[in-house]
């Protein structure tokens, strides 16, 4: 019997429907900017939070009771059946996974690889029968105790080797399943104290690891993007992949900025002291935007709570910068989000995704409406209009400091401040959300 027995495929019923298991705003077939909404948003379900997480938190253990917990290969098959049932119910076009989410932990690397390949066989069969595509795969190199001091940045070269070999097998699996990206999330690539850390060495090793991954991608003909997911503070106090700016500086230093893009998460942006739209806009401006993990944090908690999105204005501003930058190419909207530990039922898991997809659809349509209106772009053009003049362009291209000083004296420049008009722009945004 299916874990989701009795739950019908979710249909679009419109904003007037009061059915909690229906889409009120997400209509996958609605044409927006010349494409189906499904093709714009490219929703994906995260295997880990939806099917591997047991409902624990830092102060308490497991609260969920799933039929695939506490088992080996057969339990992994049952989990896969449940996952693809939910993908079908939601109609999501993609899913994402870590290796440890889908396979049992083996006694050694060889057994891990066999276990992963056995599940990939199952995935391949289900995908051929009409299951969703793979948005991205990744390797979990942070949960097992071997990675307590990192993977690529571990002081033990054997751990580096184990991690590198694991990424190879996961990249092989991702290519085999037609994955459109491969994500590297350095959950413990950082340090707790400089008393036992050689930071320069660790950064060099991390760069070497990434170069190995990029080289292997090209060797096997993997056409997807390699993505890094910035993550500050948690679990390592000083993360080398803290935010967009930090990761871009690292990529630039080691000559990887044209090979690696970024997978950005709303919750991680908040932990870094940024807004989600800031991280997206910066990645777009630097040419490294790839994909997003959509969730939210509890703003009263100081850690990554990975809740499903429910704030339309925040989501709208995030999609505004995505659509303004041309939209997704290989990336998409992955729900890196989990239930609250008191939400125990199968229906809760479906309802959470339905709500998240609706919030994203509302935010996306608001973002498109803002762009089509052009009010924010007009305000920006007006604010920077002075830079279109000949004197301003000369400062950027040919003038020296001496030239600029002479012109200031000659023209008697004594500028007065001009309003930034922030409140008027905030009011403008609120017209759409």
TrEMBL record:
- Keyword list, A-Z: Carbohydrate metabolism, Cytoplasm, Isomerase, Magnesium, Metal-binding, Xylose metabolism
**Binding annotation for Mg(2+) 2:** 265, 268, 304, 306
Record GO biological process: D-xylose metabolic process
Entry keyword Acyltransferase: no
Superkingdom to which the source organism belongs: Bacteria
Alphabetically, the GO molecular function entries are: magnesium ion binding; xylose isomerase activity
Cofactor(s) needed, names only, are: Mg(2+)
The primary site where this protein sits is cytoplasm
Name the reaction it catalyses.
Answer: alpha-D-xylose = alpha-D-xylulofuranose
The note on the cofactor says:
Binds 2 magnesium ions per subunit.
Where does this protein hold Mg(2+) 1?
Answer: 229, 265, 293, 336
Can you say where in the cell this protein is located? Cytoplasm
Enzyme class, broadest EC rank: isomerase
Active site at which residues? 98, 101
GO cellular component entries: cytoplasm
The EC number(s) this enzyme carries? 5.3.1.5
SUPFAM superfamilies attached to this UniProt entry = Xylose isomerase-like
> Entry's NCBIfam families?
PRK05474.1, xylose_isom_A
Q: How does it associate, per the subunit comment?
A: Homotetramer.
Protein family per UniProt: Belongs to the xylose isomerase family.
Q: What is this protein called?
A: Xylose isomerase
Q: Which organism is it from?
A: Pontivivens marinum
What lineage, starting at the top, does this entry show? Bacteria, Pseudomonadati, Pseudomonadota, Alphaproteobacteria, Rhodobacterales
Question: By which gene is this protein encoded?
Answer: xylA
